[in-house]
Amino acid sequence: MTTMTIAKAINEGLRATLNNNPRSLLMGEDIGALGGVYRVTDGLMADFGVDRVVDTPLAESGIIGTAIGLSLRGYQPICEIQFDGFVFPGFNQITTQLAKMHSRSNGNLTVPVVIRIPYGGGIGSIEHHSESPEALFAHTAGLRIITPSNPHDAYWMIQQAVDCQDPVIVFEPKRRYWLKGDVDTENPGASANPFKAHVLREGTDATVVVYGPLVPVALAAAEAAAEDGRSVEVIDLRSISPIDFDTVAASVRKTGRLVVAHEAPTFGGIGGEIAARISERAFHSLEAPVIRVGGFHMPYPVAKVEEDYLPDIDRILEALDRALAY
Amino acid sequence: MGTTHLPSTEFDGTDMDDQLEAEAEAHLGAPAEPMVQLLGPDGTLGSDPVFSKYAEKLDPGTLRGFYADMAKIRRFDVEATALQRQGQLALWVPLTGQEAAQIGSGRASQPQDYIFPTYREHGVALTRNVDLAELLRQFRGVSNGGWNPKDTNFHLYTLVLAAQTPHAVGYAMGIQRDQKLAAAAAGRAGAEPAEPNAAVMVYFGDGASSEGDVHESMVFASSYQAPVVFFCQNNHWAISVPSSVQTRIPLANRAKGYGFPGIRVDGNDVIAVHAVTEWALEQAREGNGPVLIEAFTYRVGAHTTADDPTKYRGSAEEGLWRAKDPLERLEKYLRAQGLADDAFFEQVRADGDELAAYVRKTTHDLETPDIRTAFANTYVEAHPLVAEELAWFEEYSAGFADEDTAAPVQSTEAETEVTEAAN
Description:
- Chain A: GO terms for molecular function: branched-chain 2-oxo acid dehydrogenase activity; magnesium ion binding.
- Chain A: Residues 4-179 form the Transketolase-like pyrimidine-binding domain.
- Chain A: Keywords: Oxidoreductase, Pyruvate.
- Chain A: Its EC number is 1.2.4.4.
- The complex is a heterodimer of chains A (326) and B (423).
- Chain A has helices at residues 6-20, 44-48, 60-72, 91-98, 101-104, 134-138, 151-163, 215-227, 245-255, 270-281, 306-309, 313-325; strands spanning 2-5, 24-28, 53-55, 76-80, 114-119, 144-146, 168-173, 180-183, 198-201, 206-210, 232-236, 239-241, 258-265, 291-295.
- The N and C termini of chain A lie far apart (44 Å).
- Chain A is α/β, with parallel strands linked by helices and 326 residues long.
- Chain A folds into 2 domains: 2-192, 3-Layer(aba) Sandwich (Rossmann fold), CATH 3.40.50.970; 198-325, Rossmann fold (3-Layer(aba) Sandwich).
- Chain A is built from 12 helices and 14 strands.
- In chain A, the strands form 3 sheets. A 7-stranded mixed β-sheet of chain A has the order 3-2-4-5-7-6-12, sandwiched between helices.
- With 423 residues, chain B is α/β, with parallel strands linked by helices.
- Chain B has 2 domains: 20-365, 3-Layer(aba) Sandwich (Rossmann fold), CATH 3.40.50.970; 371-422, no CATH class.
- In chain B, 50% of the residues lie in helices and 7% in strands.
- In chain B, the strands form 2 sheets. Chain B has a 5-stranded parallel β-sheet, sandwiched between helices. In chain B, strands 4-5 form a two-stranded antiparallel sheet.
- In chain B, β6, α12 and β7 form a beta-alpha-beta unit.
- At the A-B interface, α3, α4 and α5 of A face α8, α9 and α16 of B.
């Protein structure tokens, strides 16, 4: 068991992948000598060389598109998109090409490309650096989307993404890159399946579902609720596509109330999908409507007001109050 | 490159008719830019300081093969168009006029090379031994692919224009890595690498040349000196928009901006296309980096069977390009040189009819897939949502199991509701 940050855990996970899988390679802007703008790939080019850690031209469609070609040749590229808001020049390659290649080839071709995207706000940055576009990708069949919330998951999920024969997008909670935690590099333990949700805190009065950067927020909200005598269960979704509805539904059957929180806008978002599915699966267990907490229907606001936009402890507590009022 | 070499068409932005007229004039005359041509429209063989030596290697059998391939794919094109008109295909994308560009380049590739087509490269598919009936699956609506690219190293058609160009560069980057790994392994064993060097060739058109993916892939190819040949068929029309809207300079000239060679070749001259492509693929395989080839040709027919070229271009223009027909000029040459006789051309026609009959029959027999295959192929690995939706679909479908035998057919719940609403 080693203590490290999420950024370091991903770095170590990538290092393990490069060591274990000779056909894996990293691609992205500034990931080589600089080690990435968040230093997630720090030191890897020096150790594995320029053919395995590729500083690419500044072109996201080119990065994803050439990664698809490399995967068709039997390589396993792991692409870094520098920031969430910069993935869109590569959106066409991801949604019309990468996601569909296996299907349109009648199963003859596989393109196990991994795309790493630092996402989310709360870092006081300028525009296009704080977004949460996961729902846009979750809507596309053929892709898998996972997001770690702690160093242990980060270490294992990046390797599991590479092992998966489907394309996987790993959304990395950038404001948590420096969050420290214990990592067992020998054994994934409960994290053996990256597509399974984890119940992080058990409770009986209400369930809060979160993922990525909001996991610590939800845990803190549950702690605060406990002080008021309310027992809140917290689920880390971990996988956004597919979603582990079994775990969520089982929790709701127990608690009867569900709050879903994410930084992305609620309209057309993951929370809405969970609300709909849970209302189908656990309608008779629900004591209250599923309540969503998320961003507003606006472009991500300027940094000076992002605190008003981002779900925080109070926003989650307010939602719990509403759910428990029924 | 002086301004006098620029294409003659200039836009004043005022009169579309004038613009179209000027465009047509530009097409009527000889192209303003120099291009590699060995076999002229009159069927006489010229010379080129670089490329004649490639032409000289072609034996009579190969030249007759070029003709047979071009005739075969033109006959296939006619048949597929007819099948569309009969309602057997949803759409067809004709290639007539571009046979030399496709057969010449395709025949220059080697089995270990990998080809990324757009969606009109039926002639290239022929040279890669793709079963032509399988090409029709996509256009009949029974598959989005139709053949296994691993069998022929001929990739699936790509309909999002230029999206395949970075795939080609990435594939070429993979070849580079394979070669390094093989060389290292051979070095350890004290031997030469066993596999022949491979290259990638990617097709796109004058329209797609405006897509950002072409730019990005050329940047990547140049940066990493990837073994890739960009083969642009400039057929002059992107549906209804003339090539002059895509570019004010010859497309081949763009290569210079990326730092690799660009060559314009007469795309209706199969011998020149073959020579230039063979040279370019050699460059790529030998590690000299990418090459851009612009095959100057013409889409004699419509963009697709849903298109109507009379809305945007004149028949005179089409007529002048028909005079540059790639098959006729090779036939003239073969006859003049005594390399082929009436019997040969008669046999080619008979082979074409046989192919057409085969394609007709196979198209009619192409099976409609079960949607369960779409469930199965969305992901490689098991996926709970797909499994859940498939299970629902099976249960739902099972509700109709007795439909064929039940009499009368019972109305569904939805129909009942509609009836009640109407009442």
